[in-house]
Amino acid sequence: MSARLYIEWDGDKIPGAEEMLRRVAEQCVQEEGIGLPAYAQVRITDNATIREINREYRGIDRETDVLSFPSTDCTPRETLGKRQDKLRRERDETGRCFLGDIVISLEKTKEQAAEYGHSLNRELSYLTAHALFHLMGYDHMNEEDKKGMRRMEERALEKAGLNRVTDDELVARAKEAMTFSYSPYSHFKVGAALLCRDGRVYTGCNIENASYSVTNCAERTALFKAVSEGEREFIAIAIAAEKSMAWPCGVCRQALNEFAPALRVIVACGEERDEAPLNALLPHGFGPSSGMTEILGKE
Ligand code: THU
After folding, report:
1. Is 249 in the pocket of ligand 1 (CB under 6 A)?
2. CA-nearest residue, atom 5 of ligand 1
3. What is the distance in A from the centroid of ligand 1 to the CA of 274?
4. Please, which residues bridge with residue 70 across strands?
5. Strand 190-196 versus strand 66-70 pairing type
6. Cα distance between residue 196 and residue 283, in whole Å
7. 44, 107 contact by CB (below 8 A)
8. 207 Cα–ligand 1 center, Å
């Protein structure tokens, strides 16, 4: 590995996050092509601490998502040789170049992940990549620089296997699942792809039965697969049908509402597509927050 991250957690470690961030760091350094073993120090903290650091070192009394403190004044406009020279001066006793320090607020990372509808790991990886490119001299003062930095971040994240699941990909997964539909009675093929907060996608198809009422819809197949693998938080579901746009049936709306009342529901048929939030499809829905837990708790 030509890149190393020394990660310090002020709070609890997120399982699996360190390996992922190291993978991201490796790709960032490779993408930049500095060709020297490098390392950075990362502190993962809370809003109050990042605010304090922001005030102390930058005179800005505000919390933020990420701060980076480069060890050199490298810029991507310099030749590679010049940048390498500057970095060589930051070598430690093992010959590794110190890129600088990164501070990330985990609280802000969580908020942003929810806002953008992707996994916490994805947001944490994005912020780490962003900060690492700052450490290597990138900036986003003007549109052109911003685009250049963004391109580098995207490439590094993609190579680290962290590209965002797009609606197109989710719909494509639902269409693929549709091909497995077992529907000898209705001949109505349906496939679903459910996107979890951790970035994983579970697919399902409708499974019919000679005793018709035993039929399971594609959405519930995907949901039950996911829940039975430990997933509890969901961002979006894509539903693909062959013959018409299939909005989820009432039973599936209720099943999905148990876990994700604000789920994005995307329906697709051929090239046609539509979407609505689950709570618009199931207004005044009955769910875990409707008093059940209170009643159960009193037993
Ligand atoms: N079906 C689904 O799988 N999802 C929907 O959203 C609507 C209906 C299935 C159930 C049955 O196998 C077939 O479509 C016809 O009702």
Report:
1. yes
2. 248
3. 17
4. 100
5. unpaired
6. 23
7. no
8. 9
Q: What is the DSSP letter of 42?
A: E
Nearest CA to ligand 1 atom 4: 217
Residue corresponding to tokens 């997964």? 173
**Which atom of ligand 1 is closest in space to residue 190's alpha carbon?**
3
Using alpha carbons, select from 130, 125, 113 the residue that is nearest to residue 162. 125
Helix (H, G, I), strand (E, B) or coil at 75: coil
Chain centroid, CA 62 distance in Å? 25
- 120-156 burial, b for 16+ CB within 10 Å, e for fewer? bbbbbbbbbbbbbbbbbbbeeeeeeeeebbeebbbbb
Helix axes 218-227, 250-257, angle to 10 degrees: 20
pLDDT at 295 over 60: no
Structural contact between residues 225 and 216, judged by C-beta atoms closer than 8 angstroms = no
DSSP state of 12: P
Closest atom of ligand 1 to 218 CA is 3
pLDDT in tens, 61-102: 999 999 999 999 998 889 989 999 999 999 998 899 999 999
Asked if pLDDT for residue 246 goes beyond 90, the answer is yes
How far apart are alpha carbons 142 and 86 in whole angstroms?
25
